[in-house]
Write a structure and sequence with these properties.
Largest sheet: 8 strands, parallel
Strand order of the largest sheet: 1-4-3-2-8-7-5-6
Oligomer: single chain
Strand content: 5-15%
Helix content: 40-55%
């Protein structure tokens, strides 16, 4: 048993005693009511709140308008990994923060220490991306609330700290929320709400760009949407996905995405014209890529696990309702 509370006992790599004790202290200091107040503060600071499933058609029309007008744009998603990085920024509850960052670092990069060693970069890139985004997808209010009622053995401590951490940082009182005034807030899963619409706004585009680990993805989307010309910037496959697909024997092998491949991808981001769409699926580094795309005139869309769905792979247990069977592009 990793801790005497059986906290996270039913998940892999549960927290040790020190991290478990800090989790309960943290949950008392920032309790459910305060966490939900933080959520409401963040959403209230934005110019709009786009709720699923209506976010899909709304974003489709918005993206099509940007394409027509050749306007840059950035659509980013904040999940538990981003929240883990933001939570670590607070400097509080060090054992808990270190546990969360090490676990997500292994999941993404196959290296327990990489994100901790470069935490300044990761937090800065997330904050930058949020402040430059047109739309930010974040954890939904019921998810934040649920984390206070899940039985201890079933609680994914890292995941729940990450969900809350997004709002702890932006809604905790120290952050200047006026910086979010030009963005709309949506669900992290706006990317799934767009599943019926990607091939509407991509249809007959002269070009598109892809940042993904899947070499086949760009050609599959190109064929489906009749896109004229594409270019794919390949990134290493996330460690946990590589493990699930048996491309690696274990998750403790550095995939070499950051800092190795990252600078080359950043330099290669050069939209062929203003308003060119970039489809991006690159984990926490998607945030930095989205910022770079918008700064250089393109439209960045962080699609997350939609890339896996298109590739006929259910990488997330919450991808329910036959999403993979309905939307897979690969047989």
């Amino acid at each position: 048993m990793a801790n005497t509370y059986s906290l996270g006992a039913n998940s892999w790599w549960p927290p040790d005693q020190a991290a478990a004790e800090e989790f309960y202290a943290y949950s008392q200091e920032i309790d459910e009511a305060r966490s939900l107040e933080q959520f409401d503060r963040v959403v209230g600071a934005c110019k709009a709140h786009l709720r699923d499933p209506s976010a899909g058609p709304t974003l489709n029309e918005q993206i099509k308008a940007k394409i027509r007008n050749k306007e840059p744009g950035s659509y980013v998603r904040l999940g538990d990994a981003d929240g883990n990085a933001l939570y670590a920024r607070s400097g509080k509850y060090r054992a808990l923060a270190d546990y969360c960052v090490k676990k997500i670092s292994r999941i993404y990069f196959g290296n327990d220490d990489l994100m901790k060693d470069h935490i300044g970069f990761f937090t800065d890139s997330v904050i930058e991306a949020v402040e430059e985004a047109d739309v930010v997808g974040g954890p939904v209010r019921p998810t934040v609330s649920r984390s206070f009622h899940t039985p201890a053995p079933d609680l994914d401590v890292r995941g729940m700290c990450g969900m809350r951490g997004v709002y702890n940082y932006f809604g905790g009182g120290d952050y200047d929320l006026s910086r979010l005034a030009n963005a709309a807030w949506a669900s992290t899963w706006y990317s799934r709400s767009l599943l019926p619409y990607y091939f509407d706004f991509l249809k007959d585009q002269p070009a598109a760009r892809f940042i993904t680990c899947y070499e086949e993805l760009g050609p599959l989307v190109q064929q489906r949407a009749n896109i004229g010309e594409i270019e794919t910037h390949l990134v290493p496959m996330q460690a946990s996905i590589a493990f699930q697909t048996k491309k690696v024997a274990h998750m403790k092998k550095d995939i070499g995405h950051y800092p190795d491949v990252f600078p080359r991808i950043m330099e290669a981001i050069r939209p062929p014209y203003d308003g060119c769409v970039y489809i991006i699926a690159a984990g926490i580094l998607s945030k930095a890529y989205c910022t770079q795309v918008k700064r250089r005139g393109g439209i960045a869309i962080d699609i997350g696990s939609v890339a896996d769905i298109w590739m006929n792979f259910q990488s997330r247990p919450n991808a329910k309702g036959g999403l993979v069977a309905k939307y897979a592009l690969k047989g």
